[in-house]
Please model this.
Amino acid sequence: MIQYAGILLILIGIYGLLTETNLIKIIVSLNVFELGLNVFIISVGFVREGVAPILTSVNNHSGLVFVDPLPQALVLTAIVIGLGTTALGLAFARRIYMKHGTLNIEEIGGGIND
Amino acid sequence: MINPVLLIAIPLLLAFVSILYKGYRNNLLVFGALVNAGLVLTLGKGEYLIGGFKPPFGINLVLDDYAFLGLLVINGLFLLITLMSLDKIGENATVLLVALAGLNGLLLTGDLFNLFVFLEITAITAYILSASSRQYQHSFNYLVLGTLGSGLYLFGLILLYAVFGSLNMADLSLKMATADTSQLVIPSLLIFIGLGVEVKILPFNGWVRGVYGNSDSLVGPLFSAVYAGAMLLVFGRIFAQVIPLGAYLKTLLLLLGALTLIAGELAALSKTRIREILLYSSIGQSGLIVTLFLSGLVFPAVMQLFNNILSKAVLFTVAGQMADTTGTDDAEALQGAFARHKLAGVAFTIAGLSLIGMPLFYGFVSKINLLFGVFSLDNYWLPGVILLGTVIEGTYLIRLLVKLWMPGEEGLVSHESHATKAPLEIQRARVMGIVVLSAVLLVGGLMPGMIQNNLSESGRLLDETTPVYLFDLKGGQ
Amino acid sequence: MTFDILIVLMFLGAVTAYLVSKADLKAGAYATVLFSLGALVLLLLGRGEIGSEFTILFMGFEVTTIGWYFSGVMVLVYAMTAFFNSYWMDKMIYPGSYNFLYLFSLGGTVGLFFAKDLITLFIFWEIVVWSSTFIVPMGKSRRAAVVYYTISTIGSMATLYGIMLLHRISGTLDIQGAFAPLKNDPVLATVIFFIFIMAGLTKIGIFPFHIWLPLAHGSAPHTFSPVLSGGLVKMGAFIAYMSVGILPAYEAFKGSLTVMGIPIQIYALMILGAVSIVLGTLMAIKQDDAKKLIAYSSVANGGYILIGILLMDQLAFAGSMMHLFNHAIASAAAFLAIAVVAHRTGTTKISELGGMIHRMPLTYLTYLIAIISLAGIPPMGGFVSKWLIIQGLADQGLMFMALAAFFGSIGSFLYVFRPLAAVFLGQLAPRHEELASAPLLMKIPMTILMVLILFFGVLPGWILGIIGQIQVAAGIEPVMMSGNSILAVNGVLNTLNVFMVFGFGFLIALVIFMLMQKSRRVGLMDTYTSAEFIYTPELYHYGSAFYAPFERLYARHPSVEDFLMALAYKGHEAGLMVNALFFSHKPGVTVFWITVIVAVVTLGGVGL
Model:
């Protein structure tokens, strides 16, 4: 079930990217997209009734079902990278605002040398 | 034997050091680029484990001939471009060092997720570098599309992981070879789009015009040669060597590549600003190289890739320099610009002719090879498309060269007095750099055997079935 | 040994000429003379080595009779034109590069004809294309260079496709071997025939690819127009020969539909040749620029050459081979004469000139002889070759082709007369009263060419002998000579007798001219105007609206040039559309396309 939530979030994010004209909202849409992606990745490693893949004094018999740890590690990395791009995108948005006085992408010239 | 991880680690270390010692940033950058270029020559081929886990569980670096050649050219170009445009680096030395680490990582890694990380690192440096034109809306556009693209790439690779349970390229390619290709359609498409944003495949490359079109003499060659080269090599790694494409998807993606080629060349034909002409030409060339990779012609694609990036480094350096010093890069306003800059003009001309694929230059060798390759697949429409692209490309490049060399109004004999009065300056370092690059193109064209032997070796090791054509021409193959 | 030295020498010569030009421009121009003359000498010395093979770098060469003949024509034109270079050194924007490219393209043309494999052929072909592309814009038009390049490249890329296809089929690039499998496969042979010959058609300037000739020949530097028209155009004839002779087209098309005994594939191209003859002639008649006029006449003559080569028979083929030599030297001579005029007066507009015979008689004589030969009037070389072509056409009963050939011959009287009458004869404009005659160095090549045109018109035996060898090598019956007579089916042409008759007529005319009263020279402004003041003296010029009544007959002709330009504009528009559709600073546009692609692929995939 959880992967459908992820895909839904991805679609919402893409919808946002398609329709939003505000720079900040575009970045938010991108974040929603990434969030959905992360949820989806987690869902790939999910195993019903699985436990964390750590052998402890309690959990050390061979009948254990582990959750796949790799997607979780991937998500961790993806979150960090997403943070970086979000920060950079916000910095760009701020610079655009300083230069053009607006955050609406329709109001910013798209010409090459302007 | 030197571990190739140093190629990633040294620039990263220097990047951190350069934050501490801001005064020495540029020195550290040059040092890093020099060390890397030197290290590449001493590398030994093979697989290197990172962290001690054996593949397919751990991350590994793969240094085969494909990666080696890529590293050689990318590091060499990186060094040359930084040396040429040291005065343009300014605040960006740290970013460039990170970029170098990321680019080397892209070429070396044998793991799909690791590739994603390097993709993002490289892309973030590219966003920052693109902002040096102060046209932030284009950088923002690039950032959004780049992030979305790598997100889709990540989506694709996680689907692959869900199906095959591995992220290691070699392991995956073995598992996928026997898999049902219909399972692969969606993940391969997502990965294709993800990489397509970076390698400038047509509908995904909306950012290129704004970013390349405003590039200066550092960012222009860096993007069009170093970044584009590395990204295309990654594309080739994944689509020619890892992911097998089903007939349906392959046809569609081939069409997309061919469309990129023709549309890019047509768009370039309709432009008058030099950087715009060149950026659309880059798009067209990307389309061509992507088509070759998708057809499984790794060796011709790599040759054409090298031809493209070596030429583009020269062309974009000069074009960026024109824009930097005169404030415009409109061909009409710059007519006869080479009358006062003959040496730079000759280098520009050689690069242009090589890009078209004129004999005596390296581009001819690669063009003939790729045509042999495409015909060997019994594909008869693709060479027609490629040659049509060559005709269009030749038309606008010759038009540009003629405009830049021969000033004058129609109906009057070309004379220096018509030449532009724009205060064009081309620094000596840049002239030397582009002369070196064009000399490489010339030598490659006159003595194809020399470069050929190195390249063909790589072609063979990549894939036993990759057709290898030797250009010694005792009657063909 | 001679030929590899020859080819390498030209490329070394190019570099040498460039370096010498850096020290002294004139010396650099003289270097081009020396090297091209050296090439001529080497070629003549090396005639005994026909059949030898050699390699340079990775390229294989083989000396054949036809290759030797073609490169002889080429080198002769280059060597003669080179004498003019030194006078244009101070007018060129890059004189050193001009000298370099001049010899460089010469090296390319020489190597081209000796190529043993198709890639070598293509390499040299493209070398010539790009090196000459950079010479053309040094003249009056930048656009001309681009049009020239584009049309050449359309041809050469089509040919490259043909080469690759041949390699795929036969597994070899060797010229003889590559065509071998086509003999038994008419469909494939048809495809290859049309694709491969494209480079030839574009280079000769066959309709609809003729538009580059008037542009490039008309506006190239005056010293390069002779080479373009006399020399480089003939490269196309070589490709045409390969497509018919080496393919061999007649054998491969044995089973196909025939028109008047000719396979329809070949006949289709002959029609293009005939159209070129008619079109070139009509367009030449209405030109006011002397260089454009000769350029259009090259279109017409290219048509003759193509038809003759396509016929591959005893007479027309021999005529065509000879015509390409005659046309090369005659059109070079005509362009050189115009170059002298341009050198002295600074213009090539017919209506701005007049009476040049009084200032430069030798140039006039050169031009006279050249255009008589171009028009195919005895006793010049052009007559012999056109006679042979028309004989061949008549022999095969190809009446439409013969009609076009006759039309071209008669039309050529009209267009050669125009510059003759208006540039060289007529009244001398007042501003040209003080002109000097041609400098000595220009007189040398003009005299040589003049003598050659006349000599081969009177005694074509030597050249027809070589052509006979070419025909034997190509497997067709050689042209027959007996003494000074050329034996054809429908008649015998004794060129010496023709010359005697014309010489006799000339003598009688000379006697009358000497004995009779001298004509009085009338200046351009010496006219009766009923006390009206002349505001526009140009209108009183002999050459203004020279053929107005005739030109009116086809003033509203359709033009393929408009069509091609519209096509180019469509390409431009398509480029703008790509730009508008896909490239924006708004991420939403690209995101939209990504979703479209994903949707198309997924939905398409469901269907499968």
User: Anything to note?
Assistant: DSSP finds 18 helices and two strands in chain B. Chain B touches chain C through 85 residues (CB under 8 Å).
